[in-house]
Design goal:
Elements lengths: L2 H16 L14 H13 L21 H11 L12 H17 L6 E5 L2 H15 L9 E5 L5 H9 L3 E4 L9 H10 L2 E7 L11 H6 L7 E5 L14 H8 L6 E4 L1 H4 L7 E5 L35 H13 L7 H21 L4 E2 L9 E6 L4 H17 L5 E6 L19 E8 L9 H16 L5
Parallel strand pairs: 2-3, 2-4, 4-5, 5-6
Antiparallel strand pairs: 1-7, 6-7, 8-9, 9-11, 10-11
The structure holds pyridoxal-5'-phosphate.
Pyridoxal-5'-phosphate binds next to helix 5.
Length: about 450
């Protein structure tokens, strides 16, 4: 971080402290020599990390927080507010309500109830907890939650925790929920809630929300949208028409999860749950004899399952939204568009590579994957692991994912033409989340090619 960051933070801290200057002094413990020595060790130990903030890190879903978020978080931490109740975080609770309203507005929700959470998993847990209370037969037997086989793995775990039956729906050739299978299941009447993923974790596929909403004309079920990863892409102007149609249907969903700590430039943990019908707030009703005394206004703990939550998260998100509002064609939206353009371009380049195989479809968002050309999926998987390691030696950090072979053209594997379409192959995978990735594509490609040549150079193709 440049020196100006810390200079500004010192000034801001002074302003904040002025608000409490009338109190008798109570100095905080100082960072003496032993503390400084420990912190030196901390700094050294933290070097044992991938360079997540650098564009050559193009592996998992990791995006550096914006400096304004970092500064706002650090400033708020000197108060360390707790957004469970207004007793613990008055200003930060007000900021949370505004920040959550900005997310609801981005999705064009006419009304909403929502709050921040520690992350996507907990936000999804709340959505399915509400779904479970509303989705049961007349005799109280819980009905099922359904999600595609590409949905985040936590949905089946969360359903287990909540004691709800869970059904995995196969995905189609493009990794989207198979609507024929979904409809057949809806006909049986056992499904209460369909989890629709807008931006799957492995490949960024987008379930056809618009078509699933249309099924509500024939069948009664709730829709929960897991847009933990992809939600912000609703602002992007360069989605395919099919992806756009899915995002435009978000206001019809009963609940939506979006993670500002993924694409929203926030530090961990900052997730968000939004409900379209504020009346679900009644389901949270609980008694807490030791909180909620300071105000008759809504305490966020009255509408959330978690108790203590970092108010600093809300402050950081609020500040970031002031600087980079969620407007189509604004700077924040353009950052997302860059990542998508980068993913499309890299997919194009890889389709011409002698070393690699691309899937039959281009990326829907900014996540792409590709396999290594080889006689069998097993050989391809082993080579992907080697190229992953060779790339890391060249400071290019990718990810790996085991994915169905049916995502690739038939006859991709000369020596096993009858490969079971349900079988999997380990692929290289890249999440191009940083706007700068677009400018770094040449560097990424060169290092990837060098890693491929180092791995495959001597192997007859
Ligand atoms: C689509 C989706 N849903 C949920 C989650 C879980 O979110 P978190 O890791 O914030 O708990 C993820 C994480 O990658 C995700 O991609």
């Amino acid at each position: 971080m440049p020196d100006e960051f810390f200079k500004l933070l010192t000034e801001l801290q002074r302003t904040l402290d002025e608000g409490f200057a009338h109190l008798p002094p109570n100095p905080a413990p100082s960072l003496d020599k032993p503390a400084a020595k420990i912190l030196q060790k901390v700094a050294t130990r933290l070097q044992d990390n991938y360079p997540y903030a650098h564009p050559l890190y193009a592996g998992q879903m990791l995006k550096p927080p914006h400096p304004i978020a970092r500064a706002a978080y650090a400033l708020a931490m000197s108060i360390n507010p707790n957004n469970h109740a207004l007793d613990g975080g008055r200003a930060s609770s007000a900021m949370e309500i505004e920040a959550v309203a900005a997310l609801a507005k981005m999705f064009s929700l006419p009304r909403h109830l929502g709050h921040l959470s520690s992350g996507g998993t907990f936000a999804n847990l709340e959505a399915l907890w509400v779904a479970g209370q509303l989705g049961h037969t007349d005799d109280g037997t819980p009905m099922a939650i359904a999600a595609s086989d590409q949905a985040h793995y936590t949905h089946s775990r969360i359903s287990g925790v909540l004691g709800l039956p869970f059904i995995s729906i196969p995905s189609d050739q493009h990794g989207r929920m198979d609507l024929k299978v979904l409809e057949a299941l809806l006909q049986t009447g056992i499904i209460a809630t369909v989890v629709v993923t807008l931006g799957t974790t492995a490949i960024g596929s987008v379930d056809p929300l618009d078509k699933i909403v249309a099924l509500q004309k024939k069948y009664k079920f709730r829709i929960h949208v897991d847009a933990a990863y992809g939600g912000y892409f609703t602002l992007a102007q360069n989605l395919s028409p099919e992806t756009r149609a899915a995002f435009d249907a978000i206001p019809h969903a009963d609940s939506i999860v979006i993670d500002p700590h993924k694409h929203g430039l926030q530090p961990y943990g900052c997730g968000c749950i939004l409900f379209r019908d504020p009346a679900v707030g009644r389901l949270y009703k609980h008694d807490s004899p030791y909180t909620y005394f300071s105000s008759k206004d809504l305490h966020l703990g009255e509408i959330s399952l978690e108790c203590s939550r970092a108010g600093a998260s809300a402050v950081a998100l609020w500040a970031t939204q002031q600087l980079l509002p969620y407007t189509p064609r604004g700077a924040f939206a353009k950052g997302l568009e860059s990542g998508r353009t980068a993913a499309l371009k890299l997919h194009q380049r890889l389709s011409k590579s002698p070393h690699f195989l691309v899937p039959t479809f281009p990326p829907q968002l900014d996540i792409l994957f590709w396999a290594v050309r080889a006689p069998t999926p097993e050989a391809s998987s082993a080579l992907a692991q080697q190229i992953f390691d060779e790339a890391a030696k060249r400071d290019l950090h990718l990810a790996l994912a085991r994915l169905p072979v049916r995502f690739f053209p038939q006859n991709s594997w000369q020596n096993s033409p009858k490969t079971d379409p349900q079988s999997t192959v380990t692929c290289l995978r890249s999440v191009l989340m940083k706007p700068e990735h677009l400018l770094w594509l040449d560097h990424l490609s060169q290092r990837l090619d060098a890693a491929a040549v180092a791995t495959l150079g001597s192997i007859p193709r």
